[in-house]
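During the no-cost extension, the postdoctoral fellow (Dr. R.K.) reprocessed legacy sequence entries with the updated structure-token encoder. One reprocessed record is reproduced below for audit purposes.
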Amino acid sequence: MTEAMDTIAAVSTAPGEGGIAIVRVSGPRAREILAGAFRPARHGAQMASHRLRYGLAMDANGAAIDEVMAVFMKAPNTYTREDVAEIHCHGGGVCARAVLRRILQLGARLAEPGEFTRRAFLSGRIDLSRAEAVMQLVGAQGEAARRAALRQMRGGVSFFVMDAVRRIENLLSQIQAAVDFPDEIDEEPVAAQVRAETGAIAAEISRRIDPAGARILREGASVVLAGRPNVGKSSLMNAILRCERAIVTDIPGTTRDVLTERLELDGRVVRLSDTAGIRESEDAIEQIGVERARGEMEGADVVLLVIDASLPLTDADREMLSHADERCIFCLNKIDLGLRLDEGALPKGEIVRVSAATGEGMEALLEALRRRLHSNVEEDTFTAERHIRIAREAVALLHDCEQALAQGFEPDVTSLDLYRACDLLNQITGRDASEEVIDAIFANFCVGK
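Re-encoded structure tokens follow.
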């Protein structure tokens, strides 16, 4: 990678039509390059730091490219802690590319993916976990994901990790003191203290590891409507979405494929899928639909197992119920037609009585979904896959240390596990992250951020 002291530039807004496009410049020549590409409308006007000015973006021949707003931001009070300039032109791509072309002619280099944020990391403005939160915020799939990414950008994970590292380093210093001054420091109470504190730290890290909740937060939850034909799955999907999205008829097998729609429930993205009615069929197309329905059920976070409550259980119902697990919510549909189903024959699990036709019970169903999709993603919970993997490895090392001490090993023998746990946790914030890890993280960023 080119050294960080050159000046970089990129279009920082998404491609496509839009009201505004922003071309960003960062580095020691930002002010000079801005002066060559921008002409203020008021002749002689000074480009005071952090103040927008109206004027024209100019090409190499002195011809106007676009009417724009421009701003110069003096270091260190910038995103990268370098001098930064921006030109805000009309969106659509053509104007932004022309402005960027002129800036590159003036000596800037095209930024690599994530290079602006990488410079913010290298300058010490943010640590690595906060840098990763920038892309989590950009790619947030719902309000809950946005809030979690913002918390991480503000240091929720960083503060916890740094505190855990500080506590482990304190234990290491106690162990070292016991080794250096055996006549003055009794090793037995040190071992007891290290064992207790190591277990406490491991427990606190473990409480912040919720892979399923983190995945749902990042990617959204998969909720699948399943059941035999004609139990009202498509009607229930329409009722949840509050629009006529799925085709509804009295003909069994109307739904032949998986129909997926997106909705947001309390800030969490849900991918709601209506599937083909599961039954034995000689129709080749329907068989494919049934296989796809089974595949969707296997990968779902929540399965809404729909049963016609106006009829006694059928053999097909019993077959589906025999495969039910903790992910299932039993939706007893068509209660407006009377309840003829024996609920005692259902497996143990959550039951919701609904009528897709009248809307009765729909709020109870949505509330059941909210409970299932709620995750304990708090301010300092790990949400990035990399952080979760590292945290798990650190917890395993801390448990190894705790168990070794319980078996009577001397504290200094277990210190290697504590050192390795520290090194791992420091990789989350970037304190001990290798160049390869840093390169891999920023390679996933978009250009211009």
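The radius of gyration is 29 Å. The CA atoms of residues 354 and 361 lie 4 Å apart. The remaining legacy entries will be reprocessed before the final report is submitted.
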